[in-house]
Fold these 2 entries.
Entry 1:
Amino acid sequence: IGDPSGWHCRHARRTAKLRVVVRMWITISSDHNPDSRLRPSATAVHNDGMNSKTKRKHTNGFNEDRLMLINWAAPVLSQLVMLVIMIAQRQWLYVAMLAPGLISSALSLASMALRSNQKQQHDEPVSTTYAKVVETARQNSHSPFAAMPHMCFERFYALDEDALPWRTITRTWLSSTSSCPIGVTEHGLFRTDLQRSGPHAMVAGTTGSGKSELLISWCLSLAMQYSPDDLHFVFLDFKGGSTFNALEHLPHTVGNVCDLDLFHAIRALNAIEQELVRREALVSAERVSRFDQLVRPPARLVVVIDEFHALRDRLPDYMQRLNRLASLGRSLGMHLIVCTQYPMGQVHADMKANISLSICLRVTDQMQSNELIGIRDAALIPPSIPGAAYCNDGQHTTPFLCSAVRDVNRLVRNIGTAARFHACKRPDLLFSEPLTQHATQSDLSIPSNQSWHNVPFALADDGVLVYTAILDVSQQNIAIIGAYGSGKTNLLLHCARWLYDTGCANIRFTRKTEHGMVTDDGKPLPSHKRTIWIVDDADEALNPFSSAPEANELREALVNPNITVIAAVEKPISALLDRCPTRVAFPCGERSNDLMLGIPGAILDGFAADDYTLPGRGVLMQQAKACPIQCVEFQGF
């Protein structure tokens, strides 16, 4: 203190140290000032076209980082001030104690600053250039399609300039080529071989990508390569029935159904299951391993399903049948083409394991593209190129441009003409529509050599096909059970008219009137050994306590082997049911009562609410078999 020069020297040193502290604080404050760093970032974001939501996200992120840095800088600054003071007072012991903590806090602050800077550098380019990257990828992705010519399907076979296209189709059926052209690539036609590359295929694409045109072109290409004797189609459209309307008239088509009638779709799936079992039996009977080794192999069957995800959502209990088709179809000549908008998670693992041919049109998600073809390129196809697709056959992924059919109806007509020229037999339908609400005599299929005792009386449904139901009156008695207005009398009158027209039996008809039971014996012919006795409203006559003369006569007729009794009652009577192995029952809707009539519960489950009030809708039970029927309307004598 007594030395002025020494004091000034110490004061100068303290002042210099304070200046250093102030500079450090200014540097830290300037580095962590939000305005000093945010302004250029905001300008860059604005120049790159970042939206307001992205701006708020980055601004909030910058503020949060700055606050964290200031929070870490505060203890460093306080320790630094204390260190400077201790050095100024030459308290070296305290300086040694503060120095390690200060160094540790400074290193932590530097680490935080570096991480914040790296985060900003990582986030800003992604957010500002993402749109450009996606646009560049899209431009690069559709570049393979730019070199592909747009060509209609008819050009593949030169049908657009042919005055008689059916001749070209006829020659094509005589060739042995199994591959089918469905589009074009950079190097020529794009062909698929469902027999060798399949046997099953999946097609995916969003709305407007060209799935329907691809399916139509593919099916018509198959119809151009194979005659109706070698190939059949079954179409299941769950998009409203508009895709395959024109293809329904192909001579190859054995079934077409849409989701507007789920009962019809269920029949189609049941028919496919039955066809699978039938082919298994054929292969097993001749002890061969594949259907094409049979002496007379059946035609190949291609099942085409549009909007497969809708089928799975609406009929999930029937998916196991399609899984069996996918597993056994190769050896049985049955192929499956599945089309859907959402390939991810829609196909069962068992089915997916047997689908080796995948075609992906434009999809909205890269994960869907990767799921189907193993690359993301299908998600980058622009909407301006409908029909652009990628095909993966398990080995290669090929881009191609689908070729649409210019005139579907004209091509279908010429295929039909070629089928008639080849004398191809029209294949039987694999399944039919459900029972109609009304049936007439003209709806029945009656062979010319029909026996007199086989009375065609209704349309029967076995769950797949509708056929003509027969009542055999030459063997045993027949019971008809149903409430008033259900159609019992109508059925009896129809049987009476058929038997009267044949003139091969003695016909008796008994009905109930105000004056009791009235019997019309018709014209008895002694030469006929069998008598058919038709009794309407037989409840009172079959009452065991009845004393009417008809009661004893009817009870005796039930046990007479030369008389066939056709009796109609409202309620089941044991005396009648014990003598009638053939029954026609009209259910009333009360499940317990209907089950007492002998109607199986599975058939009752298939009855809709309107079926119970429909006249003539009943169930035919013969021995251990039962099926729904729709009786024909009586048209008078």
Entry 2:
Amino acid sequence: MSIGLEGVQTSCNMRLMRHPDHRQCLQALAFDKIIVKQASLWVLVFGLFFVAVVKTAWVSEDAFITFRTVSNALSGYGLTWNPVERVQAFTHPLWLALILPFTALSGDPYWTSLALSLVALAVTLLLFGRIWQRWDLAALLATASLLWSHSFIDYSTSGLENPLTHALLAGYVLTWLREELPRRTFLLGLLVSLLFLTRPDAILLVGPSLALHIWQKRQCFARIALNVAMGLLPAVVWIAFSLFYYGAPVPNTALAKIQNGLALAENAQQAVNYIKWTIDRDAVSVVLLLAGLIGGLRDRKLRVFAIGLGLWVAYLFYVGADYMGGRFFSAPLLLASVLLGLQLRKYGSLLKGLWAVYLVLSIGALQTTVFSPSTFDQKSLAESGIADERGFYYQQLGALSVLRRGTWNLHPWLLEGAALREVPGTYTRCAVGMTGYAGGPDLYWIDPLALTEPFLARLPARSGGRVGHYERAFPIGYLESTVTRQNLIVDPALRRLYADVDLATRSSLFAPERIAAIWRLNTDKGAYISSAFDRQAVGLPGTEAKTKSKFSCYGVPYGSDGIWRIDGPPVVVLRASFNFSPR
């Protein structure tokens, strides 16, 4: 690159000798130098993030729920979990739509998800460069703050949708800030639509800004509304498809986690626990969120994004946050870093100096990101039920660990699923992702946490369970119904629910009464309420429920829950055992 610049300089000097007025040449030279400097800074920024993400790259247990859906689709079973029923067990249609074709080419969903995550990271950083317009100190400090964030770096991979959410959110902010863009309204609507298809609740972060844009253009309301509607069309089409194909306009995971029947106070306490957990283990992320929120509130133009951050926090209190420490903060952190950077640029050197000092004083946070060791292992559960999920799975499913071992198929749950391929049947387990994926389509899984189960997802969860693990009791006759494929539910209201869920998810798409059943499931939920249902009666037939702590499932402590085979009728529950020694 320096040789080319010297050539330009020589050319300018020669023109100076012949033509004193050579401003255009000097301007071109200065422009080339700026381009080289900016490109070098972007390469530096991307290089640091690349190192951090490669050192921390991993895949979560929940990602394997998506991988099984992908595997079923590629095997001709449709977008299903258990092939005999249509259930949207994944939250992220757009992320799945990317993983599916590339897995078809590679044959490996694990590496496909990680490769797509790296691409999404590169796109995010490119869009950051466009947002900043130039990589000055403010831009570098704000962007580098994400390197200090355990939450952001952890969920720049994981096999889940977060990296795609980051890229789309950065694209939305860029589009919103560039008022001169042609068809800007359509693009804003489209990006909101894509965010919805990646993670439905992410639209809370951008909804206020889209509403403000529509209000500002209200004098041309008809044209604006048309452009927004055109942009939102992909989301509308998916919702219509989901309602027709799955019988619900939202993912089954939303039914299982949001409509859990728990009191708002219990969910709010879980949100408080989530914030406390983050403060204890990832304080830089909390400070960054607060700095972005305050910076956004101080700027009239950016205030709508600060409102979006506020809505996200309120949403955490409504749904009870999550058990995956940091996951629910990764996208808000990206937005906060943009708000911080724009404010650092606006308020001069003092603020930039203070933030730089803070990052230096917090340098220890890099031990979980850029300097994360290959021995990273954190399997302890907080009393609140929140966990460092990367710490739980990194030694078996971290990219560097996988490269050392030569395969990602050595986690005990994957080995158990592979062993069960030889004995098809009906099984139940409290963590169905890896075992369900490895077990293949001939194993029917009953999920007591209801992430993949359309009937249980519509029942209230037991109280006192672990956050994000909303266990359902099995109604009398449910296991018999599942094994025999007949409606043997005893309670009349729940019997009606089972019948309508069966029509919606198992009958042919154009079966008589199916549309009516879908209508009832989505509009007449009161018809399925049963005062006789005991939501606390968790357990399995023939097994003793010894505890109902948040670290239990089926009434037995974690580690003893295991895998159970359901046979019958009459129903017989057998504990699965394995004679291999997982490495």
